[in-house]
Amino acid sequence: MKNRVSSYGGYTAIGLDFGTREARAQLRGLDGKLLGEAVFSYPHGVMSDRLPDGTTLRPGDALQHPQDYIDALHTLIPALLQSGDPNRVVGVGVDFTQCTMMPVGEDGAPLCQTEQFANQPMAYAKLWRHHSAQPQADRMTQVAQQRGEMFLAYCGESVYAESMFPKILETFKRAPKLYQAADAFVELADWIPWYLTGERRRSRSIAGCAALWDPTAEYPSFDYLESVAPGFGSALDKLRGPLVAVGRSIGGLLPERAAQLGLPAGIPVAAGLGDCQAAFLGVGLYQPGVLLSVMGTSSCDMVIHSERIAIPGMYGISSDSMIPGYYGYEAGQATMGDLFRWFSEQWVPKEIEDAAKVRGETVFDFLNHRIAARQPAAGGLLALDWWCGNRTVLLDTDLSGLLVGMTMNTTCEDVYQALMQSLAFGKRRIVEQFQNYGIPVARMRVTGGVAEKNPVLMQVFADVLKMPVEVSDEANGSCNGSCIYGALAGSGFPNMELAAAAMGGGVSRVYYPTPDRGRMYDRLYELYCQLHDAFGTETSIMKQLKTMQAEEGKK
């Protein structure tokens, strides 16, 4: 735990963190002290069944309404300023789930808010976990392989459906009138700074992590995109705008926005970041060898390295995406907190809910007490953690979850334990992929609500990974990271290293591996890998079931 000593003259920075279901804002002193915090839940939530007007959505759709983001801004910042002097704010930082994107007009206005496209699903913000673009991702991968495109080496040998180009291609194919009307397709991490400053610029980090941008070759070529689909080369024009490095200012706060939000006009707004990239500085990391895992709705894993190494299954390898002079490597699991949410809603019987209430505990605290001393294989179950597809190392959103070993004696506790272990096994698969290709990982630092709330899960991670698991004292490393990048944009620090030392988080608790449990986990992990390889194929039964489900949905 860091001891915060103020020596920065009372100056502050604002961080804005836009998550899957809510937005969070923090006001921090440049010594890192948290002065104010506010949370805003999106009224429209995640739209996966229908639009506000009742328009039915397809399986795999995950959309959001951009008005929720605007309302969040205009609610959160005034709330923060009750805890500090607006004239002492040096800068504003922004992070967003990635890749969450939408089409806009020339002035940046969302097209879903026009009468013409209000009932067109493709006009809304496509959330990071919008998986309906998997066919487009498959097409892009196929053509890239045929052409020998160099970018494949640095996006895991496969174009990922959650990234920018497949989502644009989906709109190009499914909603051509909308595509033509769109002046730009923009990541929300870029759109929020645009909204605040009026400056149409893009984050270099975002472009590298989610849009296949490379400092040498830039975006994928016009010829390649035309080979994917005639006319699709026009997408490059819809991604125009100068790129801005991390920690640099996009521009100053517009007078109109300043008056609405209660801030002075001209305050620098930093180039946006993905929520996971922002968390790296936010938890106090500035060095290689440590895997950062941001555990929220999903899990995003970040590590930095001085060299650029092509690693199969790593969907993001980009230069200077978090720390200047280093390549950022991005991996992750498509579900984490969402998996436990699903479990609590679908599997927990009423008697356990009632028993937890009697003890004044959450369902998870109650179950943790019951399984903490269990042996790893006590439930006789094994799971694949693919409820929202596999992000790393298979890069396939069409895969789905699996539970093996259920009998008439299987209990809620058995399933809970198996789901925990599946997440740890999936994380070990990621860590081993890094290590096998020369990226050292000696320990893992974790931030996010899951890490803070579930000590039993953290111990399982330590036992399965066979390495220390450090829980950051910053429960929301992303939001703190945005504060730091906001401070950098406002010249609060001369460099990132000093900023991380002053404002970055520390460690609240360390979980160490238990050797006697590790041996049994090794045996279970071998079985997990067998399931992983058997079901993670192009002809997987999981994919056939999804196809049948989609066909039934059309009837």
From TrEMBL:
Family matches, as InterPro entries: ATPase_NBD, Carb_kinase_FGGY, Carb_kinase_FGGY_CS, FGGY_C, FGGY_N, Ribulokinase
Residue ranges constituting the Carbohydrate kinase FGGY N-terminal domain according to the UniProt record: 13-282
Organism listed in the record: Anaerotruncus colihominis
Protein name: Ribulokinase
One Pfam family in the UniProt entry: FGGY_C
Residue ranges of domain Carbohydrate kinase FGGY C-terminal in the record: 293-489
EC number of the protein: 2.7.1.16
CC per GO annotation: cytoplasm
Keywords: Arabinose catabolism, ATP-binding, Carbohydrate metabolism, Kinase, Nucleotide-binding, Transferase
One GO process term, biological-process aspect: L-arabinose catabolic process to D-xylulose 5-phosphate
GO molecular-function terms, A-Z: ATP binding; D-ribulokinase activity; ribulokinase activity
SUPFAM superfamilies, per database record: Actin-like ATPase domain
EC top class named in words: transferase
Keyword Disulfide bond tagged: no
Family designation: Belongs to the FGGY kinase family.
